[in-house]
Write a structure and sequence with these properties.
450 residues; alpha+beta; 2 domains; eight-stranded mixed β-sheet; three-stranded antiparallel β-sheet; 13 strands; 15% strand
């Protein structure tokens, strides 16, 4: 881990250039309020004194902390209201219940992949393109903290090269919204924001006030699908549990073939099946906020760029708004496309999954795990059906977690589309848990009896 002093020294001795990211010190965008290396802290250290559900988005570390009570998604979610503001409607039946409101979906990748990117570099290429064409004056994103590969360091990038240098997966809590202070100090009026679902929800909820106070003329929101972020020390612990060489991993991702791919610095790819994860050792690794989030698909962005709904090696794009269409058109000439497809039937296995949530089984023997992994890979959901399955499983798991640990929060943080998306499993849920899936169903029964 790099300390504050060692980071400052390394930059000073390299002519003002960060030796890990290659960025000028001014480009690193160190957050205000003394948050030089917040992402290197443990979960207890980072979240001490915070509310019970906090994803450390950074808003409370900025001058806009007063907006927290009215914009934090863990105080009250605002998704239907914001969807009405963005689209003039809420979600329709079908895929929008899982994926959020969208205009179009695509499977794409950069024709010329960006070196060092997690996939083909589509997200960072789009951010860089916005700066190159002068459409924005700054891009809030996250680079890697010096001395690490995966600890995010929020930065306000002012050059295309700074955005490109931030490429790569950093699946840790990152207080990106703390950089709104720097946006104000720099007098930026045209801004792009790259962030996770909780960050985007809070940004959108506070957007009217932020536009007024910052004088924003333009705000482009590029969303990254997100689930189960952790603190950097907990990520290191996780990698040491699943990899034979955790210190040489340069990229990793939970892939569509039901396995974790870890690419090492010598180019070797190590794969571990999901079913083989040592879940008994991972209890307490994931923050409560991540286990109480219901927006994996980052539904309030202008454009969402991930991979879950595409086949191996491709990225999944959801164009959501008019601004999102403009962003898509900007990067489209640099992309190649393939058809989105869907295979398998997620609903066959969902009753079993619900029962496993209610009564967690023990870890199967190795031969059984190998059989399960084979069946998942060859007969399980694929393409868009894989995305639907993963999102529904996350919704079910997080609803169960919230009801178990924070039952009083449910009415405030679960948006209506969650119950609508999970409605096909209402009877399975009731059979396994002995209670209705949708609390309104219990109210209706009670009212009818009264």
């Amino acid at each position: 881990m790099a300390s504050d002093s060692s980071t400052a020294a390394s930059i000073a001795t390299s002519g003002g250039i960060d030796p890990v990211t290659g960025l000028d010190a001014a480009d690193l965008g160190v957050p205000a309020k003394g948050l030089r290396e917040p992402t290197l802290l443990s979960q207890d250290e980072r979240l001490r004194g915070r509310p019970k559900l906090c994803s450390d988005c950074g808003l409370c570390d900025s001058q806009f902390k007063t907006l927290m009570a009215s914009s934090c998604t863990f105080v009250r979610q605002h998704i239907p209201d914001i969807e009405q503001r963005l689209h003039g409607r809420t979600r329709r039946a079908g895929d929008e219940l899982c994926f959020g409101v969208f205009r179009s979906m695509h499977a794409a990748r950069m024709q010329q992949p960006q070196p060092g990117a997690q996939w083909s570099g589509l997200v960072t290429s789009l951010g860089a393109k916005l700066l190159e064409t002068g459409q924005v004056e700054g891009v809030i994103t996250a680079a890697s903290a010096p001395g690490t590969r995966f600890a995010p360091r929020p930065m306000l990038a002012r050059t295309p090269d700074a955005v490109r240098a931030s490429a790569g997966n950093k699946p840790c809590l990152s207080p990106n919204l703390a950089l709104l202070d720097q946006v104000r100090e720099a007098g930026i009026r045209r801004l792009a924001f790259i962030g996770t679902g909780c960050q985007v929800q809070i940004l959108r909820a506070a957007e009217p006030q932020l536009r007024a106070e910052l004088g924003l003329e333009r705000l482009d929101v590029i969303g990254i699908p997100c689930s189960d972020n952790v603190t950097y020390p907990d990520l290191q612990f996780f990698l040491h549990q699943v990899s034979r060489s955790p210190d040489t991993i340069v990229h990793y991702e939970f892939m569509q073939d039901y396995s974790l791919w870890m690419r090492h610095d010598d180019g070797e790819i190590e794969r571990v099946n999901f079913i083989d994860f040592p879940m008994d050792k991972l209890d307490g690794v994931f923050p409560s906020a991540c286990l109480s989030c219901f927006d994996y698909a980052n539904s309030l962005a202008d454009i969402t760029i991930g991979y879950m709904g595409a086949r191996l090696g491709w990225q999944w794009l959801l164009v959501r708004t008019e601004r999102g269409q403009a962003l898509f058109d900007l990067i489209k000439p640099q992309l190649e496309f393939r058809e989105l497809d869907s295979a398998g039937d997620r609903r066959r296995g969902m009753p079993r999954y619900i029962h496993m949530l209610a009564e967690p089984p023990g870890k199967p023997p190795k031969l059984i795990r190998k059989l399960i992994a084979f069946l998942q890979r060859h007969r399980g959901p694929r393409g868009l059906e894989f995305a639907r399955a993963v999102i529904e499983m996350k919704l079910l798991r997080n609803l169960h977690y919230l009801r178990t640990h924070f039952p009083r929060f449910e009415a405030r943080v679960v948006h209506p589309a969650v119950y609508q998306a999970l409605a096909p499993y209402a009877q399975d849920y009731a059979d396994s848990f002995g209670r209705p899936l949708d609390p309104k169903a219990a109210t209706s029964v009670s009212d009818s009896k009264g």
